[in-house]
Hints:
Elements (H helix, E strand, L loop, with lengths): L1 E3 L2 E4 L5 H17 L17 E5 L3 E5 L2 E5 L14 H10 L8 E7 L5 E4 L11 E7 L1 E6 L9 E5 L4 E4 L8 E7 L11 E7 L4
Bound molecules: succinic acid and manganese (II) ion.
Succinic acid binds next to strand 12 and strand 13.
Amino acid sequence: MELEPGLFLYSGYYDRCAQADLRDMLRTIVDAAPLFQPVMPKTGKPLSVKMSNCGPLGWVADKAGYRYQETHPMTGAPWPDLPPVLLNLWDAVAKEAPRPQACLINYYQPSAKMGLHQDRDEAMFTAPVVSVSLGDDCRFRTGTTERNGPTKSFKLHSGDVLVMGGESRLAYHGVDRIYPGTSTLLKAPGRINLTLRRVTA
Length: 201
Ligand code: SIN
Ligand code: MN
């Protein structure tokens, strides 16, 4: 379903069994690349989400800025490989674009949220951003490419895939809130979001 020009929601893309496989795969990934606490560069204030990555590049946020890098900020090790199941997803929903290089893993505890922002640390914006929701529902907010433009919100559920491409590639977006206890996929209330991105041209 195209919600806005370039913004596609594949509701229930992954069934429960596929969600459980993704969850188990992510446990292996975060065993190797533990969740870390990103902070806002200017203020040093922690974001409310915890993060990790897989793929050749990972997105990090610390006092030195927002950027992609090849290694985990705490362990110094290269990020774990991007699993084939996520490359298959990209091929299914973003087949015209060169393959992704980064998969950001965001972990939201029940009180976590994410302020409105644009994804613009990549060197090319022709490839879409592909995101997967797992665990508890959230209220996702999306706007225009203007910071103070009008916004709309909708719920994302476990197993949903959202594609932000075309005119929506640089749209402001964020997560207003999590609805704890709306899914039994994860051991504890919370939500995981995976964001696949092409970084270099
Ligand atoms: C993000 O914009 O990095 C995350 C979006 C989401 O959690 O759905
Ligand atoms: Mn984003």
